[in-house]
Amino acid sequence: MTAPSTLSLQWHKSMASIPREEWNRLSTPLQNPLLSWDWLHLLETSGAVRTRTGWTPSHVTLWRERRLVAAAPLYLRHNSWGDYIFDQVWAEVAERIGLGYYPKLVGACPFSPVPGYRFLLDPAENEQHLTTRILRSIHTMAVKRGISGCHFHFVDPEWKPLLEHCDYLAWVQPGFLWHNDAFKSFEDFLSRFHRNQRRNIRRELRKPAELGIETRIVPADQAPEQFFTRMYAMYRKTARQFGRWGCHFLTPQFFLELSQNKELCRNLLFTAGFERHGSGKPIALSLLIRKGNTLLGRYWGCLKDYDALHFNLCYYLPIQWAIDHGIAFFDPGMGGEHKSRRGFCAVANHSLHRFFPRPLMALFRQHIEAINRHQREGIATLNATAPYVFANSQRQWPVEEKN
């Protein structure tokens, strides 16, 4: 029997130094466009991900001779803007006990609080062995460079136990998820609501037409380039409404190059609003991503405020499309307790953390279970008070999960 060849590990300052075909051979089976070479490379070439914006690429690859067997998209961070993991309180704790919090190393899909992050691994290899090898190298590099910790955001639930086995601690991150309970139609979905809320939603559904606005879904690979340029303008307007918390990182170049990438566009959808007697250009847009059997709401904006248009383009129209196309789940994006009044179940996503200074890790370990308990209680309360009859499987997953 021939002994397996040795593994060699490399660090990369950009996706450009990693062969596209090799990376996508590992990422394609995950059906997660946000972990594809094309998406990550586009973030870098468009100027969204770079040291100046606080996201320095520090990717890891693991090779067996010339074959890529593992890869980890990683970023060195000197702040927490765009993480969607609000860890500033831990930065304050570190400062109070005389420790530095930045730089930190983050594994994430940048600017996207979407569950599913994980290392990309060759299925013919031992998952635990490859994961442990990369984590050991991260630890060694972090100690040498004074990096305070390593953090994996919105991880794949199936990958979470392996990280916990490697002494990473889970932090519950509340989110929302719509579940397609074999609905035959949108009316079937509406039947799950309590009567008063069902009436409210019907009123919201009528509102765009009453305002002279037509809504429709346009697959990105059939959309004209102007959709992408207008999407940037609307994305920028939405981000600026929230000031520094708006996470305005994407650039005009990102959307322009996205419009030219047929591979990525196959997994993208626009929901669009048009004035009935207008110029034919969209006055409101939402961009969604298809990730396997899940639809992800990502970016939204409109030229001016229209009553209930956000609910139609960001919730109701995507739900209709998901029902029509047999999509199992729809993640509408972070925040907004109003989502629980529109058919979305509050759920527990997770980030995984390990601090390398022992005093900081000890404090995190001491308090994280109480923090998670509080988060789970909030999730349970939202679901218990929602005007909607959730499927039993929705109420049980993943709210009852314990660390």
From TrEMBL:
Which PANTHER family is this protein grouped with?
ACYL-COA
What protein name is recorded for this chain? BioF2-like acetyltransferase domain-containing protein
Q: Which Pfam families match?
A: FemAB_like (PF04339)
Cited InterPro entries: Acyl_CoA_acyltransferase, FemAB-like
